[in-house]
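Note to self: keep these together.
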Amino acid sequence: MIRLPDPAGALREYTPRTESALPPAGGPPLVSRTVFSAAHVVADPFADVCPDDPAAVDWDATLAFRRHLWSHGLGVAEAMDTAQRGMGLDWSAAAELIRRSAAEAAACGGRIACGVGTDQLTAPGASPEAIRAAYEEQLAVVEEAGAQAIVMASRALAAAARGPEDYAELYGHLLRQASEPVILHWLGPMFDPALTGYWGSEDLDAATETFLAVIAEHPDKVDGVKISLLDAGREVELRRRLPNGVRCYTGDDFHYPELIAGEEPSRGGRFSHALLGIFDPLGPLAAEAVRVLDTGDPAGFRKLLDPTVELSRHLFRAPTRYYKTGVVFLAWLAGHQEHFAMVGGLQSARSLPHLARAYELADSLGLFPDPALAEARMRRLLVVYGVDA
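Structure:
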């Protein structure tokens, strides 16, 4: 029995599980869906740095976590917002992360795609020329590393663009320049308020039209689109309008089971692939669910993944951008790292009651390889916060 605090400040009793429900590593490749897990970075807890200093990364633990994801058959989406791009991880560290992870992927046969952005532009008021050059620099790093590019939304572009035509011009230039088809990433303002009005309008219908027009002009250069708007209906409508051969990768951490399972054949049979931050803590279970889907059993797939949505909604609740704290917290409890510290000090971004509820939900799902270790670490955290053991 363990006593956990609730949002009202009261302590309640919870009985942890004694066995894990995770499948072992290995198994056949995932066939029916392409699945990327956006992966977090592990901070170096012994580095003498302040939150405003460049990130100090524990490279061994960071790469070990990627090998864990690959061992279950998942692809890794590297240097994305889950890795704290723009929230503690600067471009210099992100470039090093891309190079190291891409080399590790090549060594073990893992699939990898990496974020291309403009976050080396740290001063306000960047010109269109500077924004284009920043994107080009990062695209070159990713391509030279041998990874697929994920063209991320740019804070600098959101601030500088005068309208939809500026997005169309810049993205058209990048797509023509890319050597291989890329994934276009539309990250909503709930994940990053600086991206409000992306694609030239705060009206999502108008923004969608601009987005689709960019894709329609260059369908051979777009492998897929990653939609992170937490709006299942909008994603379903958008994927119906994608050109043939362009995939939809859901980034909806609230509705992923239904979006990945897809429509009934009578309604078109369309479905989403996945590029999700929640698959960082759910990796082994997500891979097992997709293997069930590979057998033609969508009901079995939903039976495995539907119970995880409550945890995901908890981790991604507003302010959504702080979901990374819960992801790293669960990685610590699961034994994937030896500490609960984050670059930029972001371990302080969620409250103890929030973390306690995350532990309870994850434990009830059997997500911890060693439930006793997770319980012991949760008890240690409670003591730090003043809960008498």
